[in-house]
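tokens incoming
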């Protein structure tokens, strides 16, 4: 139609440029536009669709087997209707497709001048559903072990308290405490993931001494039994003032150092130095590298995805996904590569993010 052609020329856009399937019917219900994505989703060629009734080209049914066009009746019914919200429908052969419709009227209560239908495949939704199912399965598996331990020890202590020595009681209670901490960490990870996915991870920016934060984490590892000689700190003295969420920064440092200690080998080197962000702004870079076997090249692109695990040494595989989310919500970047010694190397850069009153 000349009108549609004029609009396409004005926008510099062709229907085939759209990522979703587009089907447009005129005032008589016959198809006047059927783009390439609609061809792919329906399996119907454009030449077969154009000029035919939209109900014939798209014989849609709901999940109960009812004909969708008979229920919606776009060209009849209430004149105040503006369209149909997206819903899951079936094409012939049982193929699922997400369909939404808009009724275009020349005046508010006039007849439908044009019917615009968009089609989307369900692949992305299925991937999302599989991801949520995997998350639930992982959480259930990770929770089962500590909760079973907590239940077993507490039940034993309550039933046979007098039979145990003080040392035995202490050992059981320490185990219960460790398992309770494990459950608490897992729940915290789940909350972080939900906030990252929803874009609601909140930051409480304060002035952060990155050098002191790194030293604190190294001291925690040496206090837990790691030899001090395993860590090498290289800190540039002239660091810019960094405004970030100190708790979130601790979470990032703790995860990266824990990964290097647990999964890496040899000396763990931590470099802290000034750096420029991708946009050229002032920032601070922290690089954590080890001398272990490193990460295979084919796995580099999956390191920051959910459930990625570089070894069979336990963990949920959620830590690095959370680390990436925290760094990015600060406006920073994080990368993974191979260190000079052959091990894994993680490097993140946070912009200084100085408050407006300091600008």
């Amino acid at each position: 139609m000349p009108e549609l052609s004029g609009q396409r020329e004005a926008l510099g856009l062709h229907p085939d440029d759209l990522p979703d399937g587009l089907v447009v019917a005129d005032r008589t219900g016959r198809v006047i536009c059927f783009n390439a994505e609609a061809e792919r989703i329906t399996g119907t060629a454009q030449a077969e669709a154009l000029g035919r009734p939209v109900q014939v080209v798209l014989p849609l049914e709901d999940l109960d087997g009812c004909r969708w066009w008979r229920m919606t009746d776009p060209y009849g019914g209430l004149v105040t209707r503006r369209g149909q919200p997206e819903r899951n429908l079936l094409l012939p052969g049982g193929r699922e497709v997400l369909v939404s419709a808009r009724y275009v009227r020349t005046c508010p209560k006039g007849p439908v001048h044009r019917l615009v239908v968009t089609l989307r495949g369900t692949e992305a939704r299925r991937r999302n559903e599989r991801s949520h199912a995997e998350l639930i399965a992982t959480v259930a598996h990770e929770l089962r072990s500590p909760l079973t331990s907590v239940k077993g020890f507490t039940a034993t202590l309550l039933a046979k308290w007098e039979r145990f020595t003080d040392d035995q009681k202490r050992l059981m209670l320490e185990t219960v405490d460790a398992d309770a901490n494990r459950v608490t960490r897992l729940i915290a990870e789940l909350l972080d993931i939900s906030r990252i996915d929803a874009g609601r991870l909140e930051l409480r920016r304060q002035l952060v001494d990155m050098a002191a934060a790194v030293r604190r984490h190294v001291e925690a590892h040496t206090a837990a039994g790691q030899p001090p000689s395993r860590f090498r700190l290289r800190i540039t003295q002239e660091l810019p003032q960094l405004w970030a969420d100190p708790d979130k920064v601790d979470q990032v440092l703790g995860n990266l150092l824990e990964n290097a200690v647990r999964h890496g080998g040899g000396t763990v080197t931590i470099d802290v130095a000034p750096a420029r962000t991708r946009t050229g702004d002032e920032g601070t870079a922290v690089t954590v590298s080890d001398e272990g076997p490193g990460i295979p090249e084919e796995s580099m692109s999956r390191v920051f995805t959910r459930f990625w695990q570089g070894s069979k040494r336990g963990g949920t595989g959620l830590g690095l996904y959370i680390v990436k989310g925290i760094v990015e919500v600060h406006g920073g970047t994080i990368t993974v590569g191979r260190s000079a010694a052959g091990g894994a190397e993680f490097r993140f850069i946070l912009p200084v993010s100085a408050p407006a009153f300091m600008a």
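note: The radius of gyration is 29 Å.
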